[in-house]
Design a protein that fits this description.
The chain is α/β, with parallel strands linked by helices. It has a single domain, classed as 3-Layer(aba) Sandwich (Rossmann fold), CATH 3.40.50.170. It is built from 6 helices and 9 strands, in the order βαβαβαβαβαββαββ. The radius of gyration is 17 Å and the shape is globular. The structure holds 5-O-phosphono-beta-D-ribofuranosylamine (GRF). The site of 5-O-phosphono-beta-D-ribofuranosylamine has 12 residues, from helix 1 and strand 5.
């Protein structure tokens, strides 16, 4: 049985695409069961449809408050047997009830070497700060923004003359490699959360 993934995305969906492509490779231990967006026209939904994956728009305006919307997400994900939720450019802060429902079963990707530069415009923050090294982080979701236990990171150099766009593009190459790798480790049961640390258990004999 492969692990059922739910991917949450608000926009372009290039990380979703990397996940879909990884899942299409023989032997990859996960498959995307549903892609959910809060935005009707998110390109991520088109990418899901093109891959033959269910694409679901959940409109925040249909719900009285944030928690009601988040609980609807939980219902949609649970009803599809999702074992791991992958946040991939999902531009909403999730309420504690959502985080509890998926404790230890939800990942996020962020375009910085956390804990540096959390929140919006991480690449611009890195440039403005004069950082020489930037990168990407996959981490478990917790109740704050971009603070959960770190699963995997990759560094890239900041080059002289970089703009937000050139740096973002360099980081994105690493994001697309890192996210499927983190999903694979989770699906193989090789991630253990110990406090702030995520231990990667070595591959066992097959
Ligand atoms: C990525 O840079 C990701 O790290 C951040 O939002 C961006 C989403 O890009 N959380 P995409 O929609 O996956 O192309």
């Amino acid at each position: 049985m492969t692990l059922a993934l739910g991917v949450l995305a608000s926009g372009r969906g290039s990380n979703l695409q990397a996940i879909l492509d990884a899942c299409a490779r023989p032997g990859f231990p996960a498959r995307v069961a549903v892609v959910i967006s809060d935005r009707e026209r998110a390109a991520a939904l088109d990418r899901a449809r093109a891959a033959g994956v269910e694409a679901l728009w959940v409109d925040p305006k249909d719900f009285a408050d944030r928690e009601a919307f988040d609980l609807a997400l939980v219902r949609e994900l649970e009803s599809r047997g999702v074992g791991l939720v992958c946040h991939a450019g999902f531009m909403r802060i999730l309420s504690p009830a959502y985080v509890r429902a998926f404790a230890g079963r939800a990942l996020n990707i962020h375009p910085s070497l956390l804990p540096a530069f959390p929140g919006l415009h991480a690449q611009r923050q890195a440039l403005d700060h004069g950082a020489k090294v930037a990168g990407a982080t996959v981490h478990f979701l917790d109740e704050s923004v971009d603070t959960g236990p770190i699963v995997a990171q990759a560094a890239v150099p900041v080059e002289p003359g970089d703009t937000e766009e050139t740096l973002a593009a360099r980081i994105l190459v690493q994001e697309h490699r890192l996210y499927p790798e983190a999903i694979r480790l989770f699906a193989e049961g090789r991630l253990r959360i110990q406090g702030r640390r995520v231990i990667v258990v070595p591959e066992g004999p097959r």
